[in-house]
Design goal:
With 587 residues, this protein is of the alpha+beta class. It contains 18 helices and 22 strands. The structure holds one RNA strand of 78 nucleotides.
Length: 587
Amino acid sequence: MQYKKRTHTCGELRASDAGKNVTLTGWVDFQRDLGGVIFIVVRDRYGKTQVVFNPKNNSQLHQQAAGLRSEDVISVSGKVNHRPDGMINPNMPTGEIDIAVEELTIITKSDVPPFAITDDVNASEELRLQYRYLDLRRSPLQKNFLIRHQMYQITRKYYDELNFIEVETPILMKSTPEGARDYLVPSRVHHGKFYALPQSPQTYKQLLMVAGMDRYFQIVKCFRDEDLRADRQPEFTQIDVEMSFVDEEDIYQVTEGLMKRFFKEIKGIEIQTPFPRLTYKDAIETYGSDKPDTRFDLRFTQVNELVQDSGFKVFADVVKKGGVVAGFVAPQCANYSRSQLDLLTDLAKKMGAGGLVWMKVTAETVESPIEKFIGKEVLLAVKNKMKATSGDLILLISDSWMKTYSILGNLRLEIAKRLNLLDDSKNNLLWVTDFPMFEYDENDKRYVAVHHPFTSPKIDDLPLLDSDPSKARARAYDLVLNGNEIAGGSIRIHDRTLQSKVFTLLGIDEEHAKKKFGFLLEAFRYGAPPHGGIAYGFDRICMLLTGEKSIRDVIAFPKTTSAMSLMDESPSEVDEAQLKELHIKLV
RNA sequence: GGGGUCGUAGUUCAGUUUGGUUAGAACGUCUGCCUGUCACGCAGAAGGUCGCGAGUUCGAGUCUCGUCGGCCCCGCCA
């Protein structure tokens, strides 16, 4: 197919180009056939330009143009004209001109597309995913990918300037215990053996530090075979970073620098550094989350002392058992109806709460269904401690420390949504620090690492590893933006003995540790520098910078919530012969 | 694994509460008319496995059960 190559893109011609002979290539965006004159809007990645076919000039050409339909690919040549007076379209950047076509090549015809390629999308996400290449033609998605591209460039430039080197690590690696479910890849050469796709390049980047690379980064795909969410895909992209001879402050500083650039170069916003910091304990006790959304307050207050000796047995028992009675004030929600309160109670119960206690604060008094048990005095004391005023609604939960605060955390977000407190113009970044080393897994009856098994404990807490591991804090940190975890990392263990000890605490015996992580322990015999790092959730940051609600909108070919690709229909069955070669039998 | 919600024309939806004539609308598509439109306009036409499968019923888009798929959430995500 012979066609004229473009001299300009569809977004660049202006009034000053009038008189030029140009060629544009692109897709037919829209056709307006007035019987005589025909207007076609041609679209490419850069914009849209209107071209005109007039039967007076060339009737054969005009007839050809009458057959053009949406999404046909064409090449048009002609002269750039100033539009006549009153015909300028102020809504189009190229609206002052159009092109009087002298030559048209229909390069490819298009079938009628299953949905219209328009900015304000009309089709369901299901259909858009099935025809993702058409969805990606839409300008809002193209803009997202332009921002994603900028993020890649900013990241590489930034770390390069700071003397980091980009190193690729294997995609086929050893399956390791701990953490997320692995995606497995069978080995053809070695019967019955499997590679795993990396959940993260964690061990490799630590080995690169042992190798003396000193400062490493990589923009890298990671894979986790877990259930999906709006902000979670089974394959996703991280900016992976590791540095030698550093402590937490070095990591914070380097990370804050990159975030500053993202915001400045992509959104034109100066963000303040250093970012605020909150310990894990404070984050949970104040906001009920280890990734608190600090764009609004609705902070929690603990009222154990006020209710422990009151007549309300539920509260008294919880305090006696070492639990927590706490709550927060929903401002001006005292007018909530019974059914609205029931909905909140249901939400709390779904999270595992025994119930939800509410108190309505009026000018004269405090109303609550538990008044008959707890007494008016205690109600007033709670009201005063929580600084509630007339018209407010107090919500209280009583349970174990973790349960109380996490349920309150969810209620807090629900109330914030109802009160419209989520201000998208705010960009609240903060560090959450001092995570615990371990949490107890009730199913497996053992400790599991909160971050990962290579995370260093705080030096002050080393004795706790022997006495009470559950109280030991880790040198781990997360970066949070408006309630989203966008990065996380830690200072690692570089001492073989300490690493072995942590493995033991995690219930990984010496033999098992040697089998699974022997290569890392072995490496630590030959001079491991102190090191630490961080990994950013690239897709999540991109989602937040583009203002999207799902990372699917910043991933070119995403999976559905059941981990399927609707376009190419993966996963799919494979030939018997392929299975045979891999020595795999389906059961 | 669990909870919620949705699935009807190419597309977006109405109709399902209370089973009953030929399942509607808008956009799109097709045909004709129309020489400066830009959501062009006007006239007309075609277009349906009501996701799929059982069941109840004289009769099911509508009721019941199962199943598949989309989205949101809990669990899970070192």
